[in-house]
Amino acid sequence: MNPVNRRQFVKDMARGSLALTTASLGANLLQGQASAASRPSAPGAGRARETVLLALDPAAFPSLDGARQVLETGRKHPGNPVLRPRPGQWDGTRCKVYGTVLYDPQDRQFKMWYSGGTDTPDAVRRRDGASRHVGYAVSDDGVNWERPNLGLVEYEGSRENNLLLLNAQAPSVFHQPDEPDPARRYVMITEEGLSTSYTKVLFSPDGLHWVPTPKEPMAARPSGRQHEPFCILFDPEEPDPGLRWKGYSLLHIREQGYRGRAVGLFTAAEPQHWTEHPTQPIMTSLDGMESEIHIPHVSRFGDLYVMLFDAMEPNHHTQTEIAISRDGLRFERIQNGVKVIPNGRPGEPDAGKVCVSPRSLFVHEGKIWWYYTMSPDTYQTGPRGLRATPWHRYTGLVQWRQDGFASLRLAPGAALATLTTRRLQWHGTSPLRAWLNAETPASGRGIGVELLDAGGRVLAKSSPWRGDQLRGEIQWEGPAPVL
Question: Average of pLDDT values for 69-93?
């Protein structure tokens, strides 16, 4: 085993990630599994373990000489909103992905469990809008969605609808194909409609026919605090069994001079029995630039937890910022105040609110896919505003390059740059193979990589790397190094 602690990048900067492995299994890349719903329960036998260094993680590249980290703004799909309210239907004013989207490779289909409702002036005046319900939609391309007539739930005297559940919202749905009980191949954890502090767990054989469990899984008002459990993460690679389920909540707090929304946390060994984490809250706006944190989403990318969260401004607009963690419990902000999904222009459907979803982040065909809730309204308008008018909510799609929440680029005025990675260690005697997720100009000098030991001795150099590849292998000058 030789410790290795440095890479050198010349002229052009890597975008995305640097992946390193001790085995020649070039197709076995663990970095792309962002959605717990689509990730295998455990790595398969015989797989090589890869180390993935993301540009999003400042600790991966502790030394940037002539380079800078850039947070990439997600590319909003030109067809947004991809799911709209349907006047006269159950989802007449609210059609939001407070829910789950995943790609099912077996069916070759995108599947969505979303929340909706129809606000009326009377419902707005009497309470916080109309009841919320959960519906189902499918798509072949992730953009054009069909709301199938399921015939499962009666609503206003008819079963001709795509409803799955009444009086529920924000479902986190997980497909567990290896579950021995076929009636529990899918699990859903969801809020209860307008009573967002109450949750329920349901199981299903097919993601459509759901059976609730009798007991509420979370005590959402412990010690005088009020949680609204929102995002559930199934984390099978977590070494502590008691932390393999993590529930991130909207936490209402009044303490230490802070009054407002923050991020809370519950943990569990299985989805029917949860415990409030000893440290509450796990993140507040006291260390940020926003006035409150509305709701969070957390997914796992290899060894890194990525949180997308609603940064609520004093004018009650919400936009998306990003934070990371190595244990899913303690998070650090990346470029405090920088938005990875900003509001749209006045008059656009996301001009007022850009909100995260419980579970709709995944990698597919070389891109990060993310479905979010949008609205032209803010929290100063709608049911909680002086006008008491219905809110209108839509579902949008935004994408990044795979691993591309952030990139490493030349700093202003720099012609060359050198990036130094954190120290890495390998076991085994196989030749070292390395890949870049990067984009360089065809006319540039490209990227050069040097492999150094702990003392700074050069073990290997690469030929110039050029191009635009998600997984472009580095070619060593001479034989590949054996560590």
Answer: 96
Q: Which amino acid is at 462?
A: S
Closest by alpha carbon to 133, among 176, 180, 89?
89
3-state SS, residue 31: coil
Q: Kindly tell me the burial class for residue 215, based on how many C-beta atoms sit within 10 Å of its own C-beta (0-12, 13-18, 19 or more).
A: exposed
H or E stretch including 469?
A: strand 468-473
Q: 348-368, pLDDT tens digit by residue? A: 999 999 999 999 999 999 999
In the predicted model, is pLDDT for residue 6 greater than 50?
Answer: no
Contact between residue 285 and residue 293 where contact means Cβ atoms under 8 Å apart: yes
CA 103 to chain centre: 14
Beta bridge partners of 175: 186
Mean pLDDT of 315-331: 95
Over 37-100, what HEC string results? Answer: HHCCCCCCCCCCCEEEEECCCHHHCCEEECEEEEECCCEECCCCCCECCCCCCCCCCEEEEEEE
Contact between 178 and 41 (Cβ < 8 Å): yes
Structure letter (DSSP) for residue 383? G
Query: What confidence tens digit (pLDDT) does each residue in 131-145 have?
Result: 889 999 999 999 999
Contact 54, 17 (CB under 8 A): yes
Count CB-CB contacts under 10 A for residue 70.
15
pTM of the model: 0.89
> Which candidate, 419, 424, 452, 425, places its Cα nearest to that of 438?
419
Amino acid identity at 116: G
**pLDDT (0 to 100) of residue 94:** 92
By residue count, the chain amounts to 483
- From the list 306, 362, 350, the residue with the least C-alpha distance to 100 is 362
Bridge partner residues of 112 (DSSP)? 101, 137
* CA 465 – CA 179 distance, rounded (Å): 44
Dihedral (Cα; 363, 366, 371, 372), 10-degree rounding: 110
Output the six-digit token pair for 326: 């190595």
pLDDT given at position 385: 56
